[in-house]
Amino acid sequence: MTGRDQTEDMQGSVRWAFRCGSWTPSRCEWLFAARCIQREEKDRIGQFVFTKDAKSAMAGRLLLRKFVCERAGIPWSEIRLERSTKGKPYLAAPLKVGSDSGEAWSFNLSHQGDYAVLAAEKGFQVGVDIMKNTMPGSSSVPEFFRIMTRQFTAHEWSIIQSAGLEQQRLAAFYRHWALKESFIKAIGTGLDFNLQRVEFHLSSEPVTQSQVLRQTKMHLDEREEEDWIFEESLLDADHHVAVALGPADKPGVACRPSSLPPPTTFTLLSFSDLIASASPLTEEDSTYWDSFKMKADAPQRQRETRTSK
């Protein structure tokens, strides 16, 4: 455990990131990773059409298991992860910080663009979302904004539209979107939640890679929510990440954000870090690599087919 890991553990905060986009797994790495996740997870990942999605999902499952194993001290082989009806991952048994504290870990995962990220906190609800600042693929920026109009309030649109140049407006859009998604994921409601019920009032400070902002405020049904805090930072120039932290679901117990430890930036992990505590759960399946390679080769085959016509 590094000095940074020890600090995170004492504070009850974990912020990890893995760069899936630049990960080109070898046969040995991919097959070992597949052996270290639950069979149903492996089967689900095997159904992805695109390599990028398969890598992101695999990294996410390894991040979750690493967290549970190293922070809760549960042996890798005994970890049982399940999904809620809304798709939020959870443990079959809650993670307790200690026998005398009564606090449980909450954790959440997101992957988009080039990264998979995990955020976890003791005694708070947690949601995390990462967004890559990219141009919309099938429409112009004005048309893209028109399609998304109903997801934001008039105040939020005024901030987005006044951000400056087109790329700056997109960055403001994705910043708001990451904040909304982090909150939705923290409360676990999925797509049933009306996003216009939440309105974000951004910090005037720019979001950077070097520090974590906690000044942004959320209004729910037009009232400021003092029991929720939002962390914002950049993983790189193109990836905005937001973490929502709210009161734990404990009747009669108020968990105030003021009791949180100082914010910490995301630690970038290597593949070796991901599997440092891993142990195989299943036998090796060589066909799983063959399937993965077919996904990886598909874009190249499509280019070659178009060139030959």
Word description of this protein:
The chain has helices at residues 3-11, 27-35, 39-46, 51-72, 141-147, 154-161, 166-187, 271-274, 286-308, and strands spanning 13-19, 81-83, 89-91, 105-112, 115-122, 124-132, 198-201, 217-220, 223-224, 229-236, 239-247, 267-269. The chain has 309 residues and is of the alpha+beta class. Strand 4 and strand 5 (115-122) form a beta hairpin. Helix 3 packs antiparallel against helix 4 and helix 6 runs antiparallel to helix 7 (166-187). The protein starts with a helix and ends with a helix. Residues 299-309 have low confidence and may be disordered.
Number of strands: 12
Give the DSSP E fraction (strand runs of 2 or more residues): 15-25%
Helix tally equals: 9
Main-sheet strand order equals 4-5-1-12
Structural class: alpha+beta
The SSE order reads HEHHHEEEEEHHHEEEEEEHH
What characterizes the major β-sheet? 4 strands, mixed
Quaternary state of the chains: single chain
User: How much helix is in the residues?
Assistant: 25-40%
**Mean model confidence by pLDDT:** 86
Shape: globular
First-last Cα distance? 55 Å
Features:
single chain, 3-stranded antiparallel beta sheet, 4-stranded mixed beta sheet, 309 residues, 12 strands, disordered C terminus, alpha+beta, 36% helix
